[in-house]
Design goal:
Length: about 110
């Protein structure tokens, strides 16, 4: 009789089906590689092998390696301030209204 195949638990099945975006997965790999003492060149080589065509460039991997070595602990993107989309849209609407009013006055 062949051995009975072990069925994964529900939690394991959910975890196995979860997908991590390539960029986050690569950052996690760089973090792990840095924590285990690998130099950036080895991190780059391993990520090239694992992700092939979707791998970060050498300079990007070196940058992330340096950031983690200097104390960065988050692998996600940092919040970057700047112009708010809502304000830009409001400005566009205001500008369009004033142009329409000018056209009506000049005609």
């Amino acid at each position: 009789m062949p051995p009975k195949e072990r069925q994964p638990k529900a939690e394991q099945t959910a975890a196995m089906s979860m997908r991590v975006p390539h960029k986050l997965a690569q950052r996690i790999c760089v973090w792990f590689s840095m924590k285990t003492g690998d130099p950036p060149a080895i991190s780059h080589q391993k990520i090239q092998e694992a992700f092939q065509g979707n791998a970060y460039s050498k300079s990007m991997i070196f940058r992330w390696h340096k950031d983690f070595r200097e104390g960065r602990s988050k692998v996600g993107d940092l919040f970057r301030g700047g112009n708010k989309t809502a304000r830009t849209f409001d400005n566009m609407v205001t500008c369009a209204k004033s142009l329409d009013e000018d056209r009506k006055k000049n005609n």
